[in-house]
Structures are given as C-alpha cells and as structure tokens.
Design brief:
By secondary structure, this protein is α/β, with parallel strands linked by helices. 37% of the residues lie in helices and 19% in strands.
Length: 523
C-alpha cells in the first residue's frame, strides 16, 4: 500500500469537507482543489493548490472545463507498478493523485424543484466530476476515491490504521460505490431528458432506472429472505415512499406492500373514506360523512379479517376514530395526519405503526390529480414495465345493456364497487351496498368461484347489494350465482364472446347491468 500524498477535492455538497481537509493536511497530504471548494478551504486557512496552478491551464467556459486535463487524468489512471506508465509520467512531468474526493452537481435536487427550467437542469449536469470519479474508481488499486461524505471518517480511520495508506479492500468497496453513484446520476439525467423529448416514447430500447435506498428491512416476505426499500425520484403524488413514520415498530417488506395497497385505494375517493387491507386485498371499505362512521362500516365488512390489518384514511384521524381503532389489533394506520388527542390514544400501543402522508387530503380533492412514474415488476431475468392503472371510468361513459336500468342510488353504489374492484387481485368480484363494502372474492382461478367466495365472505346481508367484476364474465354462471345471493345490479367491462348470453342471464334475473369498456386486472 502506497501512502496518500496528494488529494484532489471538488465537492458540491460541502458537508464535513473543511474538517476532512484539515485532517488530511495534518497527515501531510497536499490538496488540489477547484472553484468554490478551493475558496472555502482557503478561507479556512488551508494551503491548497488551485486546479489551474496544477494543470497550468485556466478554468474556462464558465467552469465547464477545469479538471478535464491530462495532468489530472494521467495522475489518476497511471498504474504505479507499470514501468512504462511511470516512464511516461516522468517524461511529461506528471505526478500521481492518490485520493479523489468529489461529489456531483445537484442534478437530482434541481429537477425536483417545482418550476425548474430545462436550461437550469442542463447546467446542473456534471461532466468533470463523474469523469474524475470514474477514472479514480477504475484505478482503485492505486487510488482512493470518495463520493459520499459518510466515508470521510472511515477514510481517516483507514489512514491511521495503515500509515496514511488505504487498503485494497477499502478502495475496492469505495470504487463500487462510485460506479453505483454515477450510474444512478446518469439514470436521472436520461430519465429527465427522455421526458423532455417529444416522440421518444415511454419504452426506449435501453432504459436505466434510478433508485436510492431508503432503508434496510428486517427481512423480505419470509424471514429467510433479505430485503431493502428503495425510492425513485420525482414522485409528484402522495405515496407510501414519501410517508413519514411517526410511531411504532420498523416497517417490514410485507408492511410496505400492504400500506401501498391501502393508500392507493383510499386515493380513489374525494369524500371521507376508510380502507382496511389484509395481504394487499381490501377486506373493508366505506365512505361516509365522518371518518368514524366510515371506519366502523369498513370494519363491519369482515371483522375477523380486519384483525392485524393495515388501515388508510384520506382525512386527518380524529380522537373518536382513534379511540375506536384502539380497541382492535392493527398493524399500520396511514393517513394525511393525526390530531393530538388521536395520537395520544394510538401511541399507547407501542408497536402500532403510524404513517403520515403530507398533502394526501389536498391531492384527493384536487380537480386534476397528477400521477407519476411507471409500474415495474421483476421477473427472473427481466423486468416488466407498464403505465400505472390510474384511469377511472366516468358515469357518462357507462353503457346500460339490460332492460332494467340502475337507479341513482344503485349507480352510486356500482361506481363505488368499481373503484374497490380495481384494487382487488384478479379474478376480482366485489359486492357493495351504498358506499360500503359487503363482500370480496379475490384471486380465484375462475370468476364464478370469486362470486361464490364473495357470498361466503360477506358478513353483511347481500340481498339488495350490487356487484362489480374486474373483467368480463366468460359464462352466465357468475350472474346466476349473484342472482341467488340477491344482487340487484352489476358493473363489468364486457367484451366476452358470450356477452349476449351473460346479458340475457341478467335480464332473466331482473339484474341491471352496465358495461365500462375498461378492464382492471391486478395480478
């Protein structure tokens, strides 16, 4: 291991950089620096070599060109144990650079601003920084490279342990971190530019996805699986990724899935709503004039399944609702907020996880809801990418195909059931009365079995309820089963080769049927 004798420091995020520079100087390290970093270090009384003095060439083009120079990159890329490299270095009066401390222009923070201009974004694309990082990381056998201020302290510890040198394993670990950081950085730029280019399309031939780790998880779906949670950039809507946990145990992998399912469903409703999720499927849902009423009605859908569930609200949780929930074991409550007395009631349960999603109530009541991101799903050896299913049929888009027409109350109930059905695993059947869930048949291999399951699971009377189906009925048997249960109206996409037979069955049983022309499979 060779001692670190010369360092190049150029950072946008100056957290901890002055202290690091002081520590390096006390260890006999010569510091080369650029622009604002050089000024800061000079102002702190540190002797540094400006980059233009080191290269013999001035910074130019508004700072766009300052480190893109052979003296810099030869100093980073030359192999110390290669005689030809060292001969060339001597012939051209070049010196090695042993340490690079660089972090990049704040492109991510810039494009996250609400009203950033395209030109602003482009000017925050760093060129020299990634180039130096990659040069140093490629030559990690001889060069230590740091992109994250969190590594300043470990660097100094490493130098103290190895006589001002850094070990091969330490350098290799930092090099991997650099390539991950530059790959992420480039993915953000590619994604931003892709959005800004008309006609490029959503699915280019190659696509990079940039995610940043939020936290490690205790385990995955099962205890023998390891897991972590990552977030994506530029998410314009309230979502589980931006939720703040204010109480309770750490979230697990399955908790995140259930919380996401609960939140995405409650976002369908502008009126006060309560959603109860178990294993990503709704087992309770209702809207009402008060949050307490909505919660009680939702819980009554299936009180047994509600035990150990995840509950979401689209209004601030009040004391009365909190005290009612405190009577039952709940895993997670997610809402736009909690009143002080609601928090006092809920925090008595030390393991109950409370999540706050800022802006949720405003978002669900906005005249135009802004959605973001694509939906990705991993398969072994590949990745499926699609638009998110954010569409919802409007009342004037429905087509009644039966002799009996749904009344106003039935139509409101059908639309409520349709919103719920969209978030149930296929094959999905939902029974509803008014604006409360009655029964759910989820994830069955045949649609008629989903109807039977919804009847079996229903704790409230089914007679007089309406039915929603996420996809068409392939046979009339599903309608026949619904009729036996007392269903009075149905909503479904239509599109089966046996639509005529299914509609005839509805007419035989006096069931009103409307078609959406839109399917909502959820696998």
């Amino acid at each position: 291991m060779k001692k670190i004798e010369r360092a190049l420091i150029s950072v946008s995020d100056k957290t901890g950089i002055v202290e690091l520079a002081h520590q390096l100087v006390t260890r006999g390290v010569t510091i080369i620096s650029t622009g604002g970093t050089a000024k800061l270090l000079k102002d702190e009384g540190l002797a540094i070599t400006p980059i233009e003095q080191f290269t013999g060439f001035p910074e130019m083009l508004d700072g766009r060109v300052k480190t893109l120079h052979p003296k810099v990159h030869a100093g980073l890329l030359s192999l110390r144990d290669n005689p030809e490299h060292q001969k060339t270095m001597r012939e051209h009066d070049l010196v090695p650079i042993d340490l690079v401390v660089v972090n990049l222009y704040p492109f991510e923070a810039t494009v996250s601003k609400p009203h950033v201009t395209f030109d602003e974004a482009v000017e925050n694309i760093d060129i020299g920084g990634p180039t130096m990082l990659r040069s140093a990381a490629k030559n990690f056998r001889d060069v230590t490279v740091i992109v994250d201020p969190a590594d300043y302290k470990p660097l100094l510890q490493e130098m103290d342990e190895h006589g001002n040198a850094a070990s091969f394993e330490f350098n290799k670990r930092l090099a991997q971190k650099v390539f991950a950081a530059t790959a992420y950085y480039d993915s953000l730029i590619a994604d931003y530019l892709g959005d800004a280019i008309p006609g490029l399309g959503k699915f280019p031939a190659t696509r990079a996805f940039g995610y940043r780790k939020v936290q490690d998880l205790r385990y995955g779906e099962n205890p023998h699986q390891q897991a972590a949670f990552y977030k994506e950039l530029r998410q314009p809507e309230p979502c589980v990724t931006v939720a703040k946990q204010i109480h309770g145990k750490e979230l697990s992998y399955n908790n995140f899935l259930d919380a996401d399912g609960a939140l995405e469903l409650v976002k369908e409703f502008a009126e006060p709503a309560a959603i109860i999720i178990k294993h990503t499927n709704p087992c309770g849902a209702a809207t009402a004039s008060s949050l307490l009423d909505a919660y009680v009605r939702a819980r009554e859908t299936d009180p047994v399944s509600a035990f150990g569930s995840v509950i979401s609200f689209n209004r601030v949780v009040d004391k009365a609702t909190a005290e009612e929930m405190a009577r039952m074991f709940i895993e997670i409550i997610i809402a736009p907020g909690f009143s002080d007395d609601a928090l006092a009631a809920l925090r008595r349960k030390k393991d109950l996880r409370l999540l706050v999603v800022d802006g949720l109530e405003e978002w669900v009541n906005a005249p135009a809801r802004k959605h973001g991101g694509m939906y990705t799903r991993k398969v072994v050896g590949g990745l499926l990418v699609q638009d998110r299913d954010t569409r919802m049929v409007a009342p004037d888009e429905l087509k009644c195909v039966t002799a009996k027409k749904p009344g106003a109350e039935e139509m409101a109930s059908l639309l409520f059931a349709w919103k719920i059905c969209k978030h149930v695993k296929s094959n999905a059947i939902v029974f509803a009365r008014g604006t409360e869930l009655v029964g759910v048949g989820a994830g069955q291999m045949s649609r008629v079995d989903s109807v039977k399951l919804a009847c079996m699971k229903a704790q409230k009377p089914v007679t007089g309820a309406v039915m929603a189906s996420d996809a068409f009925f392939p046979f009339r048997d599903g309608i026949d089963e619904a009729a036996k249960a007392g269903i009075t109206a149905a909503i479904q996409p239509g599109g089966s080769v046996r639509d005529k037979e299914v509609i005839e069955a509805a007419d035989e049983h006096g069931i009103a049927m409307v078609l959406t022309g839109m399917r909502h499979f959820k696998h």
